[in-house]
Specification:
The structure holds two protein chains of two kinds. By secondary structure, chain A is of the alpha/beta class. Helix content of chain A is about 40%, strand content about 20%. Helix content of chain B is about 30%, strand content about 30%. The chains are: A alpha/beta, B alpha/beta.
Chain lengths: ~425, ~260
């Protein structure tokens, strides 16, 4: 059975790509007929597997780690966006291995959804893990936020080498307390930037609420983000602060750059290669946003930004990072399984920042829930059309000559990209 | 949302307000999850749209309990949040019970619904006493009840929301259910009831948030508060277009 699983899987992958289909089916096929495929193949990598997980920023962070390691001459296997489930990893592997199932890479850096990461690490214990944050994401899937923290704890437990933790997220930082054998590294934030990150426990609190107690003494962080400029950032490591240009926008993306640097430094320091900091920083300054994460396309000669929003803190950060001034705005809210079915999260976001310009177009299966939400924040509402294709057409027509921005949930973003690919160049995501 | 139905003019100054309604959020710091803020915001805005002036107050652990409260809203929390407020809630049992018995309108969702009951018995058998305003008891289970819910009620018509809880609640003789579940599970997986009603207390497991898509419940709470304080309630005409459409669309979504 084994010798046919890879050719068969690759064949299914080709056929499903020709049909423009989903990325997980070939992975499912190969998992069924050859359950050891993924584990066997990844075990051959000389520098092992690094897993990136957490609620927000996995895709952009993974992309950064990959580009940082590649700048050091390493060949990196990764799973492209949208396939952050186990069978997505298997599908991505099928695309990379030769017909005999061999993978030519030094290290794998994999983005994994919290719940699926647990299954993955049980089968493939990683050498490195990077745990970003625990926020209110799709709580209807995981139950409660403390449960999500337990999922990340399990990933850390299964890690054999270095665990990289967010020093500023108490639920993540606390994971270090129970680890025994692993090396622990932190990435951190300058105190002056802490207020730009709404902590999930006080994020909703009404104005004037007291801020929750800060951890008494912070551990040393390997990389600290000290300052964020309009297109630069200051990082401190090895006792020096360096300023680098950044193409990424949004403070939270740049904080994740500190996370990516920490993991890349750990992997290099773990014997992969001697890190050259000048090239690391150059690579970091060139990282473009991952798809749908503040990605900018061009429509009618004007920029059109896609901002993925999938939980209240992400939406709040998105509104903060991408000011509405001068932009036409559309919001697309779906409630498919991958988006989360519960609409409560919209009520944990304040939309005051959209009050001046209003929102021109609302769409998605829960477009009217969003309209209702905006009504209660006194935000002017343009058109509401739950069907995404006609809503997008109308938005582009009505906002002719203006820069445009679309805040969208995950499946709404996929639909919007599909529609946009008919009229502009959109990166193909495998 | 017209000028006549607004208690606050465009310049933020009170204009011909029909009166002030003081709304207290219970434990917003520790008990707010799944959009509980939405309920407080809907109450606040609709009070204004009905021509009254809202005054929104917070009560957190250790705070002084404010006087002259007209309406109370309280939300859910994780197990950790419930532990934090436990002792404080019991120290306020007297004032809260007094208000409930006196007919003050209250909305309690999920975690505070459970703690307003007689007790919560965890899966491991630990009994956490509630403050007993509601004659209900809750038992922790391994099963999490998650998904969209439709409830048929006599008072408020069809109520729509989203449940996410592992505690299962059963009602005693002293309360009646908010309604009967038409889709989803509700209080527990056996009797088909959702929520509880006692005097002017409305208790429910439903998030969504509950009040935005169920303005009938919001208006009941506001009406009760106004009548209790001023003897009458003169409603305004809130624009519920989007609420109606959001309800239609929500009702068609899968579990």
């Amino acid at each position: 059975m084994l010798y046919i699983s890879v050719p068969l899987g690759k064949l299914v992958r080709r056929v499903s790509r020709l049909r423009g289909g989903g990325s997980a089916l070939p992975g499912l096929v190969v998992e069924k007929i050859d359950p050891g495929f993924m584990q066997r193949t990844l075990a051959t990598l000389p520098h092992g597997v690094a897993v990136v997980s957490g609620t927000n920023g996995k895709t952009t962070t993974t992309k950064m780690v990959v580009e940082l390691l590649e700048s050091q001459g390493l060949k990196v296997f990764t799973n492209r966006t949208g396939s952050n489930f186990t069978r997505g990893v298997a599908a991505a592997l099928l695309g990379e291995v030769d017909w005999r199932g061999r993978l030519t890479a030094d290290v794998a850096v994999l983005e994994l959804d919290e719940a699926h990461a647990v299954h993955f690490v049980n089968r493939v214990p990683p050498r490195y893990s990077l745990l970003l944050n625990v926020l209110r994401d799709q709580l209807d899937r995981f139950g409660e936020i403390d449960k999500t923290a337990q999922l990340l704890q399990h990933i850390a437990d299964k890690t054999s080498g270095t665990v990289v933790l967010n020093r500023e997220d108490p639920r993540v930082a606390r994971i270090a307390d129970t680890l025994t054998g692993q090396d622990v590294q932190y990435f951190g934030l300058d105190d002056s930037l802490l207020s730009t990150f709404p902590n999930d426990d006080d994020m909703r609190a009404a104005p004037g609420s007291p801020t929750p107690a800060v951890l008494p003494r912070k551990p040393h962080a390997d990389v600290v983000l000290r300052k964020v400029g309009p297109d630069t950032a200051d990082f401190e490591y090895d006792g020096v602060t360096v300023t680098t240009a950044m193409k990424l926008r949004g403070v939270y993306n740049i904080f994740n750059a500190a996370a990516a640097l920490t993991l890349a430094r750990s992997i290099c320091g773990g014997g992969a290669v001697t890190a050259d900091h000048a090239t690391l920083l150059t690579a970091l300054s060139r990282v473009e946003p991952a798809f749908g994460r503040g990605e900018s396309l061009t429509v009618d000669g004007q920029p059109l930004d896609l901002v993925l929003v999938k939980n209240p803190s992400g939406f709040r950060l998105g509104l903060k990072s991408f000011p509405a001034d001068g932009y036409a705005t559309m919001i697309a809210i779906n409630d498919n399984y991958a988006d989360g079915r519960d609409m409560s999260w919209l009520w944990d976001v304040e939309f005051d920042s959209l009050r001046d310009g209003g929102v021109d177009q609302l769409t998605g299966s829960r477009a009217y829930d969003m309209a209702l939400r905006l009504q209660y924040d006194d935000v002017r509402i343009g058109a509401v059309q739950p069907e995404i294709a006609p809503a997008l057409t109308e938005f582009i027509r009505a906002a002719k000559g203006k820069p445009k921005r679309i805040f969208c949930t995950y499946t709404a973003m996929l639909a919007i990209r599909r529609e946009l690919s008919k009229i502009t160049t959109v990166e193909v995501v495998s | 949302m017209t000028a006549e139905s607004t208690g606050i003019g465009p310049d933020g100054v009170e204009q011909n307000s029909k009166g002030t309604i003081r709304v207290l959020q219970l434990y917003p710091r520790d008990m707010n999850i799944y959009g509980d803020w939405g309920n407080a915001l809907v109450i606040k805005q609709r009070i204004g749209w009905h021509g009254y002036t809202p005054e929104l107050l917070e009560y957190n652990v250790g705070d002084e309990f404010p006087a002259d409260v007209d309406l109370i809203v309280g939300g859910g929390g994780q197990d950790s949040g419930q532990l934090v407020i436990q002792d404080d809630l019991h120290s306020r049992a007297g004032v809260l019970t007094g208000l409930a018995e006196d007919g003050a309108p209250m909305l309690v969702i999920c975690g505070l619904y459970q703690l307003f009951g007689r007790f919560f018995k965890t899966r491991l058998g630990t009994v956490i006493p509630g403050i007993g305003i509601l004659d209900v008891e809750t038992h922790g289970t391994d099963e999490r009840l998650i998904g969209n819910v439709k409830v048929a009620t006599l008072e408020f018509g069809e109520v729509l929301g989203y449940e996410n809880h592992s505690g299962q609640t059963t009602l005693g003789a002293g309360v009646r259910p908010l309604g009967t579940v038409a889709k989803g599970t509700g209080n527990n997986s056996s009797d088909g009831h959702e929520g509880a009603r006692y005097r002017n207390v409305v208790a429910s497991y439903l998030h969504g948030s509950l009040l935005p898509k169920n303005p009938a419940i919001a208006d009941f709470l506001i009406r009760t508060a106004a009548e209790r304080k001023y003897g009458t309630f003169v409603p305004g005409a809130p624009d519920d277009r989007y609420a109606v459409l959001a309800r239609e669309h929500a009702a068609r979504r899968p579990r």
